[in-house]
Specification:
Length: 215
């Protein structure tokens, strides 16, 4: 039976923590593939992305070139409406059938915001949730609805794998990198080497991205 991971993000730009997370998801959960899905039109953000959807997809493709099991999935870029994760999971579930194991990867900060996502509780009927903890994550600070899911759905071993419905925290040590910080460095003319793959940095220079961004 297929085991597929979905990793959605703005990827503005994709950075080394994203890549480590995608690889950790693939390896820890022994998935056949992890699909990185750049959001076409993120709706739960204060401001739009700085790079276009096409540019963010190009950067994802450059970043994962040669990485086994990591795939760039352009479905949200092609779709001209809001990028609801639940719609993407529903689409994948329809494609893969009811028995495939589906994993949705999010960061701990996204977990805290989950109750604001469109039809967020349906995520558990469609997929399992893998959470990559970020520095500062504390389950005690989750709001009650999501804390209850965190407590009841968490599984710590894999003797009983299911197509959907569980939550697992990745064991990967938290990586203190964010796209916001990278954009700020680039706007200040500072070096972002080591934080972003070299091919993506070349693309950023060539496309003259993030020169005047403040956040
Ligand atoms: P920004 O700084 O612009 O908000 P970001 O670095 O958080 O961007 P996103 O594209 O928004 O990157 O992230 C996609 C997903 O990856 C989100 O679920 C986010 O929580 C998670 N994520 C990003 N960076 C990390 C990190 N360093 N550790 C754990 N999760 C992360």
């Amino acid at each position: 039976m297929k085991r597929i991971g979905l990793y959605g993000g703005t990827f503005d730009p994709i950075h080394c923590a994203h890549l480590r997370l995608a690889a950790a998801l693939r390896d820890e959960l022994q998935l056949d593939e992890v699909r990185l899905v750049p959001a076409g039109q993120p709706y739960h953000r204060d401001h739009g992305p700085h790079a276009s959807a096409r540019q963010r997809l190009d950067m994802v493709r450059l970043a994962i070139k040669g990485e086994p099991g990591l795939i760039a999935d352009d479905r949200e870029v092609r779709r001209q409406k809001n990028a609801y994760t639940v719609d993407t999971l529903q689409e994948l579930r329809t494609e893969l059938g009811p028995d495939a194991e589906l994993w949705c990867l999010i960061g701990g900060d996204s977990l805290a915001r989950l109750p604001s996502w469109h039809h967020w509780q349906d995520i558990f009927t469609l997929a399992n949730l893998a959470v990559a903890l970020r520095p500062g994550f504390d389950p005690a600070h989750l709001e009650p609805a999501i804390r209850a899911e965190w407590q009841t759905r968490q599984v710590f071993d894999f003797s009983n794998r299911t197509p959907s419905g569980t939550i697992r925290a990745l064991t990967l040590a938290p990586v203190d990198v964010s796209a916001t910080r990278i954009r700020a460095r680039l706007a200040a003319g500072e070096d972002a080497g080591g934080l972003v793959p070299a091919a993506v940095l070349d693309y950023i220079r060539q496309q003259q991205l993030y020169r005047n961004t403040l956040a």
